[in-house]
Amino acid sequence: MLVSDVKIEQLKSIGEHINELSELLIQVVEDGASIGFLPPLKLF
């Protein structure tokens, strides 16, 4: 992927993107990323 292929946009809700976001989280952790969360972590 080239940098010019990246599109950044603000989301009002992640509901329709939850599958893609979950897959992204899995991929980056499998590639060695360390992910942490700070409270409060709200579920939708």
Automatic annotation (TrEMBL):
What name appears for this protein in its UniProt entry? Uncharacterized protein
